[in-house]
Amino acid sequence: MSRYKQTYAEWSTDPERFWMNAASSIDWIKAPETAFDPDMGAYGRWFPDGVCNTCWNAVDRHVAAGNGDRLALVYDSPVTQTVKRYSFHDLQTEIGALAEVLRLNGVDKGDRVIIYMPMVPEAIFSMLACARLGAIHSVVFGGFAAAELATRIEDAKPKVIISASCGIEPNRIVAYKPLLDAAIAMSEDKPEKCIILQRDALTADMIDGQDLDYSTEVGATKGTLPECVPVLATDPAYILYTSGTTGQPKGVVRDTGGHMVAMKWSMEHHYDVKPGEVFWAASDVGWVVGHSYICYAPLLHGCATVVYEGKPVGTPDAGAFWRVIQDHKVVALFTAPTAFRAIRKEDPSGALIDQHDLNHFRTLFLAGERSDPATIEWAQQKLKRPVVDHWWQTETGWPMSGNPVGLGVLPVKPGSPGVPMPGYRIEVLDDEGRQLPAGTLGNIVCKLPLPPSGTPTLWNAEERFHKAYLEDFPGYYATSDAGIVDEDGYVFIMARTDDIINVAGHRLSTGAMEEVIAAHQDIAECAVVGAADALKGQLPIGFFVQNDGASRDPVELERELVSLVREKIGAVAAFKTAMEVERLPKTRSGKVLRGTMQKLADNEAFKMPAAIDDPAILDEISSVLANRGYRKASK
Ligand code: COA
Ligand code: AMP
Q1: Ligand 2 centre from 244 Cα, in Å?
Q2: 244 pLDDT band (50/70/90 cuts)?
Q3: I want to staple 306 with a disulfide (CB 3.0 to 4.6 A). Which of 77, 280, 345, 616 is the partner?
Q4: Which atom belonging to ligand 1 lies closest to the Cα atom of 341?
Q5: Rounded to the nearest 5°, which phi and psi values hold at 178?
Q6: Are residues 603 and 463 both part of a single domain?
Q7: How far is the CA of 226 from the centre of ligand 2 (A)?
Q8: Ligand number with the minimum distance to the CA of 403
Q9: Selection from 504, 505, 428 nearest residue 473 by Cα
Q10: Is residue 622 part of a domain?
Q11: Is residue 137 included in any domain, yes or no?
Q12: Are 21 and 426 in contact (CB under 8 A)?
């Protein structure tokens, strides 16, 4: 039996014992005596009587063990031409000073702190300084607009916000501070203080009484090291807002203890990385990948992490990833397939790969969106190393399925993100909740309870948590992904069952975009769907109907709608196309046929929906799409 099968069987025979064993790799202030309490929360809670601190485990523990001089963090920023290295000792110093600043400004255990920052080491210091104090951070991705930030401020009610003067995109400098000020102005809840990191590329205007200069404050507290505050394993470590089916994002809550246990377990068994090695997740701290595998997991495991402020291409070329791997002796890279499609497009022969020394590099991990087999095969051929697709969600914080390299590499099936990880019993159900046979497409669900790190609830939204994840399939967590599990137990993720789309590995809600478009004064109704895109996987495209009596130029209206979505949601939505139609295709009960529209855009075969109100409308949609370069679908 392979080690994977053996380990999965160990988990499945006695999950509590399995996770209690895994928990022994964490330093506890009070070790848990109970692995799991099934009566707590919506489906039970892990390690309910454990007491711990994440910052201790990620930083102080390594210093205390005599590894203070070991490399902990590399900041590599081609956009500012900077490389900086921090040891665990340096990290402790930076985090200690910032934690003291937060403490002096009233941040206490359980208080929320929003972090709205670009990919700079101070973003990691901020996350860990919160962890040190037992405060709950909520990192907001820099590509989101002021309105999105405001929604998160209103929901999380942060005492302090940590931000920066700007982010640096290859084509422009993104001034963060005006976005932050606008978000605070929009929000009914105001933070008591904002700590602003002034960057060389742009100096932000500071507001007296509200804003503090990061460097000045930290300069004044350098050398202090407030204690690592003991928290319960079930206390929230962070809230991470992610797209839901409405404009109101879901505040995914992460437990402290279970999170650490799962992170540490996954570094050894899934990613096969050893303490002292360099692990690189080329993502952003604003996403779950950034939380788990830029910040927490590598540091908890005593590895060095890379904070990369750049893109896979254009900073300066498609060799950027290979240069970073070479310069910092990276052993494992984790990125989104989009990044590889971008690299392949610019360097199809992989010539730039060959120009770099990738001696230390062992494995490529891909996640965040479906990995098309062509991308996987190209990466395998050019890198001559295992290319591992794995599947997970913000809600779980770590892979639900994958190829646990640390337990021996399993054969790769291109198109499949591997086999279930210990912790996850993955099943495929029809809409009525009946189990489907192997190889049949259906709703992918996980038997409850979720393992450690799985979200126990949504911030301020217990009912929404039930409705979104637990109600449709009692006894299971509904992933909102559709797919199959084949006879060998390999999972295939085919599509979302809700209105979430995946744009360059970024999770976005078409419903949220529709809310923005529908608010325009000349719009009667609209629909947004995700159309297939060769680079980004999917791109949103909008259809709109003008109000009766409105006769606006559709080109002008499209421009207005595009800038409205950019202004309200952010550039990251990549919403660039909005087409006028006379009517939207609907069922007789008035449900918009978004799935059919998406198939028309992608030129996929589809069955005429039985309940369609007026089939002729599909011909109009087809010709509008054809005029815009999307091909007419065959019925
Ligand atoms: N702050 C501000 N703006 C941001 C931003 C940030 N942190 N990140 C992205 N944006 C902006 C970009 O500047 C761009 O704006 P534009 O419309 O003015 O050009 C827009 O959001 C879309 O950005 P992005 O998705 O990065 O697309 P791109 O066209 O600039 O680059 C790729 C294409 C393929 C290089 C890029 O999508 C990429 O690196 N993808 C990897 C995906 C990834 O790491 N996903 C994380 C999940 S694992
Ligand atoms: P996020 O919460 O941003 O991590 O997005 C989670 C969603 O991304 C999942 O529900 C899937 O739809 C999609 N996803 C993530 N990883 C994969 C993968 N390896 N293959 C297919 N889809 C994926």
Answers
A1: 13
A2: confident
A3: 280
A4: 34
A5: -60, -35
A6: no
A7: 38
A8: 2
A9: 428
A10: yes
A11: yes
A12: no
